[in-house]
């Protein structure tokens, strides 16, 4: 199967950024409402918890900004793909550790685990094809 990685790589970066922007804003924009409703957990009442959720939102939005920029700036595509892959595998590994140590979370967090792992492996395949094409 011959993929056009030069067009697929930026599309993957844009797609991933859009999905993660929605997720980040959903829990960081208004954690008092979204955290208990989205993740079926206790209400977020204290300023420190709210600050942590908003900080994580900012971190995710910063990564997404880089991925969107790289999608339209060819020289950054490979670096952005690597950072996306490591971010997805890092999240997957932390969720697996939590699963083993803490037990099974809600369904949405299991869906996140599957999506993060699938994205990590997909991006890995894109990187391999991208590097192969660049070296030929």
From TrEMBL:
A Pfam family assignment: DUF4345
Record's keyword terms, sorted: Membrane, Transmembrane, Transmembrane helix
Transmembrane segments: 12-35, 47-69, 76-97, 109-127
The protein's name: DUF4345 domain-containing protein
Organism whose genome encodes this protein: Tenacibaculum tangerinum
């Amino acid at each position: 199967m011959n993929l056009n990685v030069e067009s697929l790589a930026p599309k993957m970066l844009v797609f991933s950024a859009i999905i993660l922007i929605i997720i980040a804003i959903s829990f960081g924009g208004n954690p008092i409402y979204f955290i208990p409703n989205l993740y079926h957990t206790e209400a977020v009442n204290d300023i420190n918890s709210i600050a942590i959720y908003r900080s994580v939102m900012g971190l995710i939005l910063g990564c997404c900004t880089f991925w969107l920029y790289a999608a339209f700036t060819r020289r950054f595509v490979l670096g952005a793909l690597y950072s996306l892959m490591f971010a997805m595998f890092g999240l997957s590994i932390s969720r697996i550790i939590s699963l083993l140590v803490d037990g099974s979370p809600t369904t949405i967090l299991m869906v996140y685990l599957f999506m993060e792992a699938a994205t990590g492996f997909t991006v890995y395949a894109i990187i391999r094809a991208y590097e192969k094409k660049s070296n030929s």
